[in-house]
Amino acid sequence: MQTDIKFRIATEQDLNRIVKMLADDPLGSKRELYEEPLPDGYIKAFNAISSDPNNELIVAYRENEVIGVQQITFTPYITHQGAWRATIEGVRTSSSERGKGIGKELIRFAIQRAKERGCHLVQLTTDKKREDALRFYEHLGFVASHEGLKMKL
Fold first, then answer.
1. What's the CA gap between 129 and 43, in Å, rounded?
2. Is the omega angle on the peptide bond into residue 76 within 30 degrees of 0, that is, cis?
3. Is 1's pLDDT higher than 80?
4. Which of 83-87, 96-100, 104-108 has the lowest average pLDDT?
5. pLDDT of residue 25
6. E-state strands within 20-82
7. Structural domains in the chain?
8. pTM (2 d.p.)
């Protein structure tokens, strides 16, 4: 565990760095658009996330440098007797920091937040092309117990 890493809710000042991290991988480079100024869609999404008490955009940082990001969404479900679950999305680590345990600490932080919020389950998805990510999540205790489907609109 890297004890010098801290976590906090992202601010709008972090948004450029967040989008840069999202775009800095083979799949992200095809779907994200990092340019300055940022496209309005990112700002609108940030504002929607920030104003929703059931969403948290979390950054990992060391000193004043943002080195990781993830979004946690807390959702009530009618199933499982009305239990809540947490969904982890958009996990990224700065390319200069990959392989140093930051991703593991981000996920541990998300799991802790889920427990604090009374969730009974933590879920996430990863693109099937991200074989390393799948192994990473399985190593952390996640189980590929369901088949997920998506439809682009």
1. 28
2. no
3. no
4. 96-100
5. 86
6. 55-62, 65-76
7. 6-139 (3.40.630.30)
8. 0.93
